[in-house]
Design goal:
CATH architecture of the largest domain: 2-Layer Sandwich
Distance between the termini: 41 Å
Structural class: alpha/beta
Strand order of the largest sheet: 14-13-12-11-7-10-9-8-15
Oligomer: single chain
Order of helices and strands: EHEHEHEHEHEHEHHHHEEEEEEEHHE
Helix content: 25-40%
CATH superfamily of the largest domain: Dihydrodipicolinate Reductase, domain 2
Radius of gyration: 20 Å
CATH class of the largest domain: Alpha Beta
Mean pLDDT: 93
Largest sheet: 9 strands, mixed
Length: about 350
């Protein structure tokens, strides 16, 4: 059994806690938060852009800590699940690995490539696993798309477009603070840059346009990814935090293969989850299918993600979707895109 300690209890910490409840061979044994009400199980007021809001939780049997240092010295914890603001990821993850703990840290890995590289080096030096919670590949819809692309039954990909648009969140002060989050061009957009890397590998160049804030952060970005060994492959993505609150969240994709088209779009519309386009597979002859993908609850993706982390602790093998190296590559790609917006020209990756 892998013993998990959750460090940080906001919306994402609560989501991880809920996701872990259905993880096999893994359980939450400790929680660390500065807030006494949360340590007592009063999670009312916690919430985000999906899932049920927090309520009263029974934390009997779970050790609670106010100070990070106390949790890191707990000998019974195998895996520290870091759900703190991005600006704290580097130092906390390094401290956890040096304390002998494996680490799962929320995305993005850090706010700078220097810190990302430090974290990867410390993982190598300590022999501890550094895993990054890029959850998108674990959503059933995105996992299905990867299966279709990798399977090759419908030929090669000709074109793909990904989209992720939200309104400015009123549930996350850390996201609104661009200095601590990196802004939407990193904290939000990195979901899709990471997934594009997993699906297609590293592009050679990016061409991006967008809206800059203080000449440093991107509020909205639209990028074309260019692959020199596949000059006919057209991959694009648009991300940003510019929608009005009537549609507080939207993500999806359109992917065109030689012998099929795959579509998907989900929104939070008027405060309610809305499947505006279920995963749809269109093939030759006008055939349209909606594959059965199981539960629609977004928490399922977090269960799958954390299950992969628990499996990695047990086996020592980290899936590419969770690896610190892949997360650092995604962060690098985001910065290259922001640079392209700033310079108004193509940038080599």
């Amino acid at each position: 059994m892998v013993s998990i300690g959750i460090l940080g209890l906001g919306f994402m910490g609560m989501t991880h806690y809920r996701g872990i409840q259905k993880v096999r061979r893994g359980k939450v044994t400790a929680i660390c938060t500065r807030h006494p009400k949360k340590r007592a199980g009063d999670w009312r007021g916690l919430g985000g852009n999906f899932g049920e809001p927090g309520g009263m939780e029974d934390l009997s049997g779970i050790r609670t800590y106010e100070q990070m240092e106390d949790m890191l010295t707990d000998p019974d914890i195998d895996l520290v699940d870091i759900c703190l603001p991005t600006s704290q990821h580097c130092e906390v993850a390094i401290a956890a690995m040096r304390a002998g703990k494996h680490v799962l840290v929320e995305k993005p890995l850090s706010l700078s490539l220097r810190d990302a590289n430090r974290m990867v080096r410390v993982a190598e030096k300590t022999g501890k696993l550094l895993m990054v919670a890029h959850v998108l590949p674990f959503f059933p819809e995105f996992a299905y798309l990867k299966q279709v692309v990798d399977g090759g039954d419908y030929g090669k990909v000709l074109g793909a477009h990904f989209k992720r648009i939200i309104s400015q969140p009123n549930w996350s002060s850390a996201f609104a603070n661009m200095e601590s989050s990196g802004g939407p061009g990193v904290d939000l957009h990195i979901h899709d840059t990471h997934y594009i890397l997993v699906l297609f590998g590293r592009p050679d160049r990016v061409v991006s346009s967008g809206r800059l804030v203080r000449d440093k952060y991107v509020e909205y970005i639209s990028t074309s990814y260019q692959f020199l060994d596949q000059p006919d492959l057209c991959v694009t993505c648009a991300s940003g935090a510019i929608s009005k609150r009537g549609r507080s969240f939207m993500h999806g994709f359109e992917v065109y293969l030689e012998d099929a088209t795959v579509l998907y779009e989900f929104s939070t519309l008027r405060g309610k989850p809305t499947l505006t386009m279920p995963v749809t597979l269109m093939t030759e002859g006008g055939k349209v299918q909606n594959p059965r993908l199981g539960a629609a609850d977004p928490v399922v993706a977090f269960t799958r993600e954390i299950q992969a982390a628990v499996d990695a602790v047990e086996s020592g093998d980290v899936a590419r979707e969770l690896s610190g190296e892949s997360a650092a590559d995604a962060l690098r790609l985001c910065f290259k895109e922001v640079d392209s917006v700033r310079r108004r020209q193509a940038v080599r990756v």
